[in-house]
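just leaving the lab so this will be short. what follows is a protein written twice so to speak, once as letters and once as structure tokens for the fold. can you read through it and tell me how you think this chain folds. anything you notice is useful, everything is just below:
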Amino acid sequence: MSRVLVTGSAGRLGRSVVISLAAAGHEVIGVDSAPGTPREAASALPADLTDLGEAHSVIARFRPEAVVHLAAIAVPFSRSEPTTFRVNTQLAFNVCEASVALGVEKLIVASSPTVIGYGAPGGWTPAYLPIDEDHPTEPWNAYNLSKVVAEETMRTFARTTETTRMAAVRPCFVVAPEEWEGAPTQSGHTITERLNRPEIGGVSLFNYLDARDAGDFVDTLLTRLPLLETNGEVFFAGAADALAREPLAELLPAVIPETKAFAAHLTGTAPAFSSAKAERLLGWTAKRSWRTELS
């Protein structure tokens, strides 16, 4: 097991990643400007990683074998567009630069499925369904543009190093354990509301991922990262089913008419996003479903 530094350790995704990594035996260092890092972390430190010197200082202080970079303004339009873009892209650059400069062995950078471009005000049509990592990106706001930049930043640094192994993950709509019990999700709606009102979940193509499965994904990726042939891979990570009561072949065209030509490929409970690459290269599949977790 190794020492793993998790940025954004107090966030919705970060909390579950910290708990999962600690349960797997890693020594976890949480870094977040806000309080709330789980007590399972061996240490927690507030830091402003948009400052390059501070990013270097934090990594130099703890000398982790791995860094999992989750820190970001995580909800589109929750801050001004210039602030969201500046903060998220600066965070990604600083963490990548400091990790490579200080010899971190493994680095995972969080991206987002929103890079695909769904929800655009002018409409959006997928190139195909289900969506995988080869699907074109079409960012239309500062948040998903910042995530495209974060991925490219990671790839850029991956081309410059032979010692730091890197990858990016696009976790689907993360559902924290308390949200199965009725707490509001990051959209402000409960899971039951998202299921009962398809127009809410339909905007994001009914994608989701239990936060604990996200933690398991990160642990698996850290283990498999040195074995991947290509440095700088990108992975979708999503549940094995859609967050919907009806098959997406029927539901998606009703919410997003532009998907009609492709939705027929989504039979049964199949989701709109494919995690087949993660299963093929990492041996990972999500274990939890809303059908078993929802109270």
